[in-house]
Structure formats: C-alpha cells, structure tokens
Specification:
- The chain has five helices and nine strands, in the order βαββαβαββββααβ.
- It is of the alpha/beta class and 209 residues long.
- It has a seven-stranded mixed sheet with strand order 3-2-1-4-8-5-9, with helices on both faces. Strands 6-7 form a two-stranded antiparallel sheet.
- Strand 6 and strand 7 form a beta hairpin.
- The chain is globular, with a radius of gyration of 17 Å.
- It starts with a strand and ends in a 17-residue tail after the last strand.
C-alpha cells in the first residue's frame, strides 16, 4: 500500500507553555519532535510523501528530506489538514499529529492493512478506567469501558474518500478526521494501539524527552 502522510505541525503550543511551536522542541537526541514524528514514515518504503503543514514563520525550520513537502497551516486544525490534502498524490493518505512522536512501526503496519481493506481506519487506545457521563457535576451514567476507545493518530483513509468529506463539510467543526467521515455515513475501523503513542500536550509532557 503506497500512501502519503499529512503531518499537522501548525499549533502554538500554548498548553505546553513553551512560547513557540511545540513541533520544534528539541529532544535530548538532538532531533525535534517533528523529526521524531516523521521518522517512522521516512523509514517506510510505502510512504511516498511527507507533507508537513506548519505556520508560515516555521517553514524554514522544517528538516530536509527527499520525501518532505511543506505547506502553510490554516486558522483551525481542519483548515491545516485540508491544505495538506491538496498536496497528496497517493491513493491513500494518513493524517498524523506532529505532537505524537512515539508511533510504533508495528501499529503503523497494522493500520495500513486495515485501511487497505476498509478504506478508513484509525489507531485507538482501549480505555482502562471506568468512564462516567457527568452533567452539572453529577454522574448520569457509567459506560461500558470495554466499548470505549480513545482516538489517536495516524488516521488513514482512501484519499478520494477523505477529500470528499472535506469538500462536503467545509463549514462544520469536528474533533478529528474520523468523526468527519463518520458524520457522512462512512464506516471507520479501529486498530488497537498497544504501544505508547501519547500526544505531547502539557509542559510536563516535555520533561525528560
């Protein structure tokens, strides 16, 4: 399965309190978070293009590689993804957060197989805690955690499918690309991620990297 990947790296990192785009935080090994997030795709022969979407002022900070194409992000995440999708030329596309630098190769391979079979699939982590639905600080019900998964990235699609979703829902807000596809009636499958694929969000997440 040949694919392109859109890596969204246009955040401001406000919750991380870094004062700059967290994708360019330099880790102890000398690589930026963005470089680490892209490394699994660089090493994958099936990945043809890595489309990095970032702030205009950060374009010259993006690392150089034959696979890398850059484009400017938009006002919202969905705008950034859409800008990235315009550069996609492969039959399949993965959409990944730059702030998830720990993607495991095995998880990626399992995700690719699922996308090729079903056209839309995401990595997700199975819930381990009991999940409560709360309103006005009062528990309304308890959900069966065996049916609860926390969505991660990459999220992958047949390119024509996700481009069609974006074209039809230009003015709709959604929390991730999978929910956009779901809203239009597409079946989206999950691959359970059994490895550490956390998203770097708060200041504490960047300690000891």
């Amino acid at each position: 399965m040949e694919y392109d990947v859109v890596i969204v790296a246009s955040g401001k990192g406000e919750r991380a309190n870094l004062g700059y785009n967290k994708a360019f935080f330099k880790m102890k090994d000398g690589r930026t978070v963005l470089q680490c997030s892209a490394s699994t795709f660089i090493d994958d022969e099936d990945c043809k293009n890595i489309i990095v979407v970032t702030n205009e002022e950060c374009l010259d900070k993006v690392f150089k590689d034959d696979k890398v194409i850059t484009t400017i992000g938009g006002a919202e995440r969905k705008d950034s993804v859409e800008n990235g999708l315009k550069k996609v030329s492969s039959e399949y596309v993965l959409i990944h957060d730059a702030a998830r630098p720990f993607l495991n190769k095995q998880s990626l391979e399992e995700l690719k197989k699922q996308i090729e079979i079903n056209n839309a699939a995401i990595l997700a982590k199975k819930a381990v805690d009991t999940i409560k639905v709360v309103k006005d600080n009062k528990i309304e019900k308890t959900l069966d955690r065996n049916t609860i998964y926390m969505a991660e990235t990459p999220q992958g699609f047949k390119t024509d499918l996700i481009k069609d979703c974006y074209a039809k829902c230009a003015n709709i807000n959604f929390t991730d690309d999978a929910s956009l596809a779901e809203s239009l009636g597409y079946d989206v499958y999950i691959v359970e991620d059994k490895f550490d694929n956390k998203k770097l969000t708060t200041q504490a997440d960047f300690e000891n990297l």
